[in-house]
TrEMBL record:
Name by which UniProt lists this protein: DEAD/DEAH box helicase domain protein
SUPFAM superfamilies per UniProt: P-loop containing nucleoside triphosphate hydrolases
This protein's record includes keyword tRNA processing: no
UniProt entry keywords in alphabetical sequence: ATP-binding, Helicase, Hydrolase, Nucleotide-binding, Plasmid
An annotated Gene Ontology molecular function: ATP binding
Domain Helicase ATP-binding: 110-308
Entry-linked Gene3D superfamilies: P-loop containing nucleotide triphosphate hydrolases (3.40.50.300)
GO BP, one annotated term: nucleotide-excision repair
Length: 685
C-alpha cells in the first residue's frame, strides 16, 4: 500500500525544515532546536512551511452521446475530420470513434452557429479546452477555402497569449492540424523571436509550407491564423512596417475570431489596457465587435454568481453585447458506488491489510463500500463545487477519525486518502477516489524575537538566547505581551541583534523585505542563497544590542506601548539601541562590508524553496518508459529520467531560478558522489 500523499507532504516538510535550518547557519544549538519545533508539522499552523493541501477529484470529463466521426456533415466537414484523424503528430490525432466531451460539443455548436456568439470556456486542466475553440476555427477556415478554392490571405483568427511560452506550446498542434492543407491555410507565431528576413529561414520555410516563419513573409502574405502577445500586437498597430498585415486583412474584411487565452490573468489596469487594445484592433481591421467571435479561456471559478460575472467580464473586455456571450463549463463523470452497511465497517488498519501491495484490490474496494468514513470522504470531495482543503475534510469526517490531536488527525486523513486513491475494483475501472492535490509553500520572511530577556513565554531551549521567545512568523506582540522585533545576525560572528524602526518616541516593528519573492535572492547573494541586500535600507532603523556597549545608548522601553524613555512605566526594561547606520556588532565590532550594514536577516524566497522542492516532487513522479528516454534505461539517467516543468510570473525570477536550480542539482550530485566516496573509504579502511 503506497503512502503517496502522506509521504510526499511529510518528506517535503522535513526536507524544507532541514534545508532552512542548514542554510541559516545558526551557531546556537538551542536556537536551532527551538526553531525546529517552531517549524511545526501541523499543516497550516504557525511556523509550518505548508498550508493544508487542497484536493479536487479528477474523474474523467463527461463524454457526449455522439462519436467524432458521426459529426461529419452535421457539424464538421469530412476534410476537418480527416485532418484531425490522420494528423502527422500522433499526440494531436483524433480517434474518429471517440466521443468528444459534452462541453466540447457545446462549444463547437455555439461557436459555429450562423450568428456570431462569444464564449468564456472555464473547464479544468486536461479537459480539451484548446480543442473547444481551435476546431471550430479550423472548420471555419476550411469552409471558406472550400468555397473560394484559393489560399487564404489576411488574418481571420487572432490569438492573444500572455506568455511566449504559451504561444510556442501551440506550434506542434497547429502544424499537425494545418499541414494537410499545405499553403492554403497557414499560421504564424509572431513574437520577438520571429525572424525578420525571409532569406534567413528559407530552408525551414520550405519544410513547413503551412507556417510563416519570417516577418517579411507575414507582411506580404498575412496568415489566416496569427498567434501573438499584447506587446507585439501593440507594435503591429503602430509600426508602419507592419501596416500591410492590417491593411490586407482590412481589405478582405477577414478578421472574425479573437482568442484570449488565460483571460483571468488580465485584471485591473492590465485588463483596461487590453480592452482598449481590442477596440483599436477591431477598428483597425475595419470590423464591428458584434461581428467577431471572441473566445476567452479562464480558470474555473467556484462561485454562485461566477457565470454572470464571467459573461460581464468578457462583454466589457471585448465590447460585445452581453446577450452574445455564453459561458461553457465542463462536468466530470463520477462513477457511482453502491454503499452498503450502517456501521463504520473496518478500521483503517484492517482495510490496509487487505490485498496488500496491489492497487487492483476488489476485496478492499468492497470493504471500503461498507465504510462510512470512506463514503463521507468521497462524497465530500466529489460533491463540493470547489476544491476541498484537508482541514475542511477533517471538519466533515472528524467525529469518525480515531485520532483527536490536530496533527494526528491530518496524518490519519492523509492515510485514508492514500488508501482510497490506491484501490480499484479492476484494472479497467477507476479507483475509489481519484484526486489531484495542490500544495502551498510558505517562504521565510525573517526570524522574530520578543525584546524582553525575561519573557515568560520563552522556550527552555533558548537559555543562551539574549532576548525573549523567538518566532518564525511576524507578529506584533509576544505571548508575554512584550513587543516583537526582527532578529538579525552579525555577518562575521553570528551574534544576534534586533532591528526596529524609529517612530519617535516609539520603537515600532520594521516591515520585512517581501516586495517580491524573487528579490529575496538577488544576484549578489552568496552560496547560502540569503541576500545581503535584502532589507538593506537603513534609514530610520534602530539596532537593539544583546548587551550594553559604548556605541549604543541605554534607554527605557515601555513593554506595553513600545514607547522609549518613559520613566514612569509600570512594565519596562532597559535596552541598548543605536541608529542602524552607526551601529556595530557588540561582540566583534564589525560594521559590515556593504551599505546594508553588519546584520544579515533571515530571508529565503521562492527560488530557494522551489529548488529544494523539485527533488522531492521528482521522487514521486512515475518512471518514464524507455521510449520516453530514447531507448535508455531510466536507471541510467538523472532523476531516473523523470521530468518536471515549473512556471513563474516573474521573468527575472525565472532566469535566476533556472540558474540556481541547475547549480543546486550539480551540487547535490557532487555531494552524493562525495558521500559515496567517503563511505567507500570507510568500508575499505
Amino acid at each position: 500500500m503506497s503512502g503517496y500523499f502522506k509521504d510526499l507532504i511529510n518528506q517535503s516538510l522535513e526536507r524544507t525544515r532541514e534545508s532552512t535550518l542548514s542554510i541559516l547557519g545558526l551557531g546556537d544549538p538551542g536556537l536551532r532546536a527551538h526553531l525546529a519545533k517552531q517549524m511545526s508539522n501541523r499543516l497550516g499552523g504557525e511556523g509550518c512551511f505548508l498550508a493544508p493541501p487542497v484536493f479536487e477529484h479528477t474523474f474523467g470529463w463527461e463524454p457526449g452521446s455522439i462519436t467524432f466521426k458521426a459529426l461529419e456533415g452535421e457539424l464538421l466537414s469530412s476534410e476537418v475530420i480527416s485532418a484531425l484523424a490522420n494528423a502527422p503528430n500522433e499526440n494531436y490525432r483524433f480517434d474518429p470513434n471517440i466521443k468528444p466531451y459534452t462541453h466540447q460539443l457545446t462549444a463547437w455548436r455555439t461557436l459555429l452557429a450562423a450568428k456570431p456568439q462569444s464564449a468564456v470556456i472555464t473547464t479544468g486542466t486536461g479537459s480539451g479546452k484548446t480543442e473547444c475553440f481551435m476546431i471550430p476555427i479550423l472548420q471555419d477556415l476550411v469552409s471558406e477555402y472550400q468555397q473560394t478554392k484559393r489560399p487564404l490571405q489576411g488574418v481571420r483568427a487572432l490569438f492573444l497569449y500572455p506568455l511566449n511560452a504559451l504561444i510556442n506550446s501551440q506550434r506542434e498542434r497547429l502544424d499537425a492540424w494545418t499541414r494537410p492543407f499545405d499553403q492554403n491555410i497557414r499560421f504564424c507565431l509572431y513574437n520577438g523571436n520571429t525572424k525578420e528576413s525571409r532569406a534567413s529561414v528559407r530552408k525551414e520555410q520550405k519544410e513547413a509550407p503551412n507556417q510563416i516563419l519570417s516577418r517579411e513573409e507575414l507582411r506580404e502574405h498575412p496568415s489566416p491564423i496569427l498567434m501573438t502577445n499584447a506587446t507585439m500586437l501593440e507594435y503591429m498597430l503602430v509600426r508602419q512596417v507592419d501596416d500591410p498585415i492590417i491593411q490586407k486583412s482590412r481589405e478582405a474584411q477577414s478578421l472574425r475570431w479573437i482568442v484570449l487565452d488565460e483571460a483571468h490573468t488580465y485584471i485591473g489596469s492590465q485588463a483596461a489596457e487590453l480592452s482598449l487594445l481590442l477596440r483599436r484592433v477591431v477598428e483597425a481591421f475595419g470590423r464591428e465587435a458584434s461581428d467577431i467571435r471572441f473566445v476567452a479561456t479562464s480558470a474555473t471559478i467556484a462561485d454562485e454568481k461566477a457565470e454572470e460575472r464571467l459573461r460581464e467580464y468578457l462583454a466589457g473586455l471585448a465590447g460585445v453585447p452581453l446577450h452574445q456571450v455564453v459561458v461553457i463549463g465542463g462536468q466530470r463523470q463520477v462513477p457511482e458506488i453502491q454503499f452498503d452497511g450502517d456501521d463504520n465497517g473496518m478500521s483503517l488498519t484492517q482495510l490496509k491489510s487487505i490485498e496488500v501491495g496491489s492497487t487492483t484490490a476488489p476485496k478492499r474496494f468492497d470493504a471500503l463500500c461498507k465504510s462510512r468514513t470512506a463514503q463521507l470522504i468521497r462524497n465530500t470531495v466529489v460533491n463540493s463545487p470547489k476544491p476541498v482543503s484537508l482541514n475542511d475534510l477533517i471538519g466533515s469526517v472528524g467525529p469518525l477519525l480515531v485520532s483527536k490531536d490536530a496533527v494526528e488527525q491530518q496524518q490519519e486523513l492523509l492515510e485514508w486518502l492514500d488508501l482510497l486513491t490506491d484501490t480499484k475494483p479492476s484494472d479497467k475501472q477507476e479507483p475509489f477516489l481519484k484526486l489531484r492535490a495542490h500544495l502551498f509553500q510558505r517562504m521565510l520572511h525573517g526570524l522574530w524575537s520578543c525584546v524582553n530577556p525575561v519573557c515568560s513565554a520563552k522556550s527552555g531551549d533558548l537559555k543562551d538566547w539574549p532576548f525573549g521567545q523567538v518566532y518564525v512568523q511576524q507578529r506584533g506582540k509576544c505571548d508575554c505581551g512584550s513587543p516583537v522585533y526582527e532578529a538579525g545576525f552579525c555577518d562575521d560572528c553570528k551574534t544576534p541583534h534586533l532591528t526596529a524602526e524609529h517612530a519617535h518616541p516609539y520603537l515600532r516593528q520594521a516591515s520585512p523585505y517581501v516586495i517580491d519573492e524573487f528579490s529575496l535572492q538577488e544576484d549578489d547573494s552568496d552560496d547560502s542563497g540569503i541576500s545581503e541586500r535584502a532589507g538593506s535600507s537603513l534609514k530610520g532603523r534602530a539596532v537593539i544590542a544583546p548587551t550594553p556597549h559604548e556605541a549604543f545608548v541605554s534607554e527605557d522601553l515601555d513593554l506595553d506601548t513600545a514607547e522609549l524613555g518613559k520613566l514612569d512605566a509600570e512594565n519596562s526594561i532597559t535596552i541598548s539601541q543605536a541608529d542602524e547606520r552607526d551601529a556595530i556588532c557588540v561582540n566583534c565590532g564589525s560594521a559590515g562590508k556593504t551599505a546594508g550594514g553588519f546584520l544579515r536577516k533571515s530571508y529565503l524566497g521562492a527560488p530557494f524553496y522551489v529548488s529544494n522542492a523539485v527533488p522531492t516532487v521528482l521522487e514521486f513522479c512515475p518512471d518514464p518508459s524507455r521510449e520516453d528516454c530514447d531507448g535508455a534505461s531510466p536507471e541510467s539517467l538523472p532523476a531516473r529520467g523523470r521530468k518536471l516543468i515549473t512556471f513563474t510570473d516573474s521573468r527575472q525570477g525565472t532566469a535566476r531560478m533556472a540558474v540556481r536550480m541547475q547549480q543546486e542539482a550539480e551540487r547535490s550530485r557532487l555531494r552524493g558522489l562525495a558521500r559515496i566516496s567517503h563511505e567507500g573509504i570507510k568500508e575499505s579502511g
